[in-house]
Amino acid sequence: MANLSVITPIEYLKGVGPQKADVLKKELQIFTIGDLLSHYPFRYIDRTQFHKIRQLHPDMIGAQILGRLISIQEIGEKRARRLVGQFRDDTGGIELVWFQSITWLKKSLKVGSAYIIYGKPSEFNGQISITHPEMELFHPQEKKIGNLTMQPVYSSTEKLKKFNLDTRGIQRLQQVALETIFNTLQEPLPPYLLEKHQLMDYAKAMLSIHFPQNTPDLNAAVRRLKFEELFFIQLRLLRNKQLNTQKYKGHRFDKVGDKFNTFFNERLPFPLTNAQKRVVKEIRQDTNTGAQMNRLVQGDVGSGKTVVALMSMLIAIDNGYQACMMAPTEILAQQHFAGIRALLGDELCTVKLLTGSTPIRERRLIHQQLEEGTLDILIGTHALIEDKVKFKNIGFVVIDEQHRFGVEQRAKLWRKNIVPPHMLVMTATPIPRTLAMTMYGDLDISVIDELPAGRKPIKTVHFYENQRLRVFGFMREEIAKGRQIYVVYPLIKESEKMDLLYLEAGLENLQREFPLPQYKISIVHGKMPVKDKDFEMQRFVKGETQIMVATTVIEVGVNVPNASVMIIENAERFGLSQLHQLRGRVGRGAEQSFCILLTTHKLSKEGKTRLETMVRTSDGFEIAEVDLQLRGPGDISGTQQSGVLEMKIANLASDQAILMEARQSVIEIFKEDPSLSSKKNTLLAHYLNQRSPGISWDKIS
Ligand code: ADP
Ligand code: MG
């Protein structure tokens, strides 16, 4: 068939046909020949390296062995059902074990044949075994494709394997694909960039990623393809950012007036940290350009984001606009309201609170005042985005803990004025730089990387459960000093019933150790009616109870300066960023604060790393970096809804250097040629034109 290219549907490739095409689409989302070529190997086996069975050791990450499958036998029942194969070479024997696809394996494994197997050796009762090895029949006479020493391994599925599309089968397709369309492959990057960044050309990289000749060749191909992927993501993000500034006119705040100055000079009870000053300045500059601002403020818990938000809102009011601030929970909205009222006093401007539980009459009054323009600042929850809430002239929107809100919710605030308001989103979940650049590459980012002076660092310790009596003793001492204590339990959907029982048992235990009337305990968890939750919360906030037993509902934002001890039960079950958030609930007052992480003795390696990290540092950015390394980008909180993180080859955790290089490259290109109209950038302009233009901020972040 003539004229095949990357956009040709996969069924037209020789050796594919409708049936295989169908599974390729369903299982791997491969629709075109181009999709097939960008189904890269996820690993390579060095085919020159073989191990003898005698050399196998449980510490090895993986080993390739040539041997013979002597027998297979199914043993055990139900969940213990497994297939066990005896595998031998001339130095000894091991067991191969499978727990899945047993029926299929029994049919397809050839007992008595020679296999090349690959897998991780482990040891059980002194016997070495490999679970779910990769199996490949050994054909000594078969010519290896391209005579490879680095054998690619492709991800495949049981379904694909039934259509002969195991790693070998996919490799054969890659060969056909490359033979068929190699000459049509087009370089998407301009030549000057290849030269500048020393990149292998595209066609060569495609060949080498699938059929590497040697390690340097493979590394060069991988680097090239990663660069390209990250480069085009940054190109899109930075182009969007550029478009947003051009497209959306913004309210120009050109004066700093009475309210800001009065607040700053007369009411602010503490000096701002340098980081706070810097961010306020950045916002002031941004809002005075005539373009609409989209800024993300990252700052650890307690770094003082609220006051920055407040001062920004005052700038808006000084320029004749209204402002609002949205928080993800009722408790948090109430705290912001109380805090901001306390900071502002009664004279400077009018502030109101709107949440789901605001009584109808008050609500109507608020609606009316907003439309008349007699209400300056509105603080609240999701209630703010209802259509009924109309502003006379909203100029500035603050969203706290932005990752708790959906994209659509943010977009609604954006549309509350004809000219969209400036948007300031704040997060206390520090995101590693590389992630932020990719998730929020089209936003401006400010970082508050400094805590107010005089804060005592929180002392964090790790105890095992059997040291709980010591912990109780410590709690008594702290309560005797007048402090309050949080005790937090995990509550996870998948194990909710067990978790609730565990929490109840823990609560009973505490009630015995800390009996009435001397001690009082609040309890708050997500399963309680909102009213009860608020009631219990309020008792703790007012200091009527000394201990608050809670699930992670207290994670976000709650501020009780007198609480100085955070005890986290089953700490090994929490993610790092969650632990960090929880710890941030204490250390807000003048007293020395403590965080006690309680765990069982059974800790995974990753669990240990998390606990060690918590004990070692309280720097949110450092913690986020460890979290990224441990879990990969997809699991970091706040990243789930972000499609930009789905990458084919690059990895934000390990490819930071390439990302920085790619981003810097894009920045320079736009600086030199903002409209990409020069001849050398034609390819880039073409790439962007193919995609839907002007994805707006609310759709992408
Ligand atoms: P977060 O960044 O976690 O939202 P907050 O804005 O709630 O932090 O601030 C935490 C506490 O620190 C508040 O009680 C606030 O009044 C106080 N605070 C903020 N900035 C300063 C500062 N520059 N100096 C002293 N205390 C400050
Ligand atoms: Mg806050």
TrEMBL record:
Pfam families: DEAD, Helicase_C, RecG_dom3_C, RecG_wedge. PROSITE patterns: HELICASE_ATP_BIND_1 (PS51192), HELICASE_CTER (PS51194). Keywords: ATP-binding, DNA damage, DNA recombination, DNA repair, DNA-binding, Helicase, Hydrolase, Isomerase, Nucleotide-binding. GO terms for molecular function: 3'-5' DNA helicase activity; ATP binding; ATP hydrolysis activity; DNA binding. Residues 467-634 form the Helicase C-terminal domain. Belongs to the helicase family. RecG subfamily. This is ATP-dependent DNA helicase RecG. It comes from Sphingobacterium corticibacterium.
